[in-house]
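User: Sequence in, structure out. Go.
Assistant: Echoing your sequence, followed by the structure tokens.
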Amino acid sequence: MIDVPSDSAILESSYSGLEDLFAAEVPTSIDDIGPPVPVRMLNEFTYCPRLGYLEWAQGEWASSADTLHGEFVHRNVDQEDRRDLPVGDAEHPEAIHRRSLRLESEELGLVAVVDVLELEGNQATPVDYKRGKAPDLYEGAWEPERVQLCAQGLLLRAAGYQCDGGIVYYAGSKERVQIEFDYALVKRTRELIADFRRTAASGKIPLPLVDSPKCPRCSLVSICLPDETNWLATHPVLEEEEDTKVVELRKALVPREDAKPLHVSEQGAYIRKKGERLEIEYKGEKLASVKMLDVSHVCLYGNIQMTTQAQSELIKRDIPICYFSQGGWFHAMTTGLTHRNVEVRIKQYAAAADAALSLPIAKAFISGKIRNCRTILRRNLPDDPERILDRLNDSATEAERAGSKESLLGIEGMAAKIYFSGFAKLLKAGFEFDGRNRRPPKDPANATLSFLYALLTKECHIAIQAAGLDPMLGMLHQPRYGRPSLALDLAEEFRPLLADSVAMSLMNTGELSNDHFVTRAGGCGLTPAGRRATLGAWERRVNSEVTHPLFGYVLSYRRVIQLQARLLSRVLLGEVREYPPFKTR
């Protein structure tokens, strides 16, 4: 409880105390804390300590309708004013305005960009722009907004200005709300500054909020995963039981993304930037024009050219560019700088080097894959005289009890042989399938599977990198030059559900025929028309929606892959006890 001086007899002494509080240093060593904390991050920390830590310490960020609207509201005040900050005095009392003024204090450990600064003599008044309408509160504004404004006041005081209050401007209601920097607010702000810096330096993420109304509107809800993390932290991973009750968590995650991948496979095509769009041309003819806002990532197959301007803009927008060989082999990706979340990669490297940490995760990948293989066959196999389903069930149980990665790989290999013997029975006549082969695939079925597995690896690679993990170092697949081992790990549980099911559908419905394949030098590959048909079926599948078997909400398969990558990071950071593989019923 904070005692706020209020009696008129002690007003003078309380004002003196406020002056001392303004001048006091934050009681934390800067050498132990690191760089100054942005005041905007202090706002997030006040709203939710976990949110502040995710954005500042782990470098996570995601746009939402609210954040984009906020950027629009700030479009004018964000234009930097390069004029020097004047020092007013009694002889020059005229009011002066400054926009986007940067302030920093080593003593406070803070840095801020003031939206608008109103100066009259030596009296400084910060103005902070906010979207939405002014709340009906006695204090005039929500606590995070008042703390952010007060922190700007502390910086102005540290710069030698008199600052006794500030203004929050609400664009929604076009109101200016006056906030007084009283004793209670200043003390609370300084406490939060010290607390935030200690938390950031500790390297331990705060616990998620429990059933908080703040979470559904938060832009980082799909990264934070508050409900999922809280539930998994207290419950073991569900066993494969037909009568297991699904837990229904809040539908905080967006079911699907509005942006979609852009696939370009026309050999010799040329991609350039024109305004806010990407234009694809071939021999001077425009093939397509798409808004970059509608693109989640770009996939280039073979000999495709792209201008530096287009590449630069895509990187700036965090839109990955994925490169495939002409035959569909995924071999490279262009993105911006490595994800700032070094913390989770340190944990990943430690787990990969320790069998006691990596083996349980590897077992979850493989057991999930085998159970999903069994599900595909159970749904489609007309009869089972060879007891394939029982044998796969036994293999999944053995995988869950494996004592080493070597034995786990042996179990996975035997289970794959059993599964593909059943998968061959699901294909209509005309597509012979005598087991899995690759590099190069020797028949149409294997050529289709290889291409679909490459597309799946690409999806997992993007999701893993977005989660701050290193796609090249896996828990099951051993590191090898050029191989995205962790992406291959994550892909295991999705191979039967996405790639195999799409391949079966394409060949059984006639979307692919033998005319869509070409055989040369003992290898088989898809023709351009066959590749387009396969890409269309793939996009339909990954964008189709499914009910999550653990959490009960509906989301697309592409979002499921992203969710699983985030859950993996939560396991590595120690927030979740076990990795829960995605297993359909």
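User: And one key feature?
Assistant: The first helix runs from residue 11 to 23.
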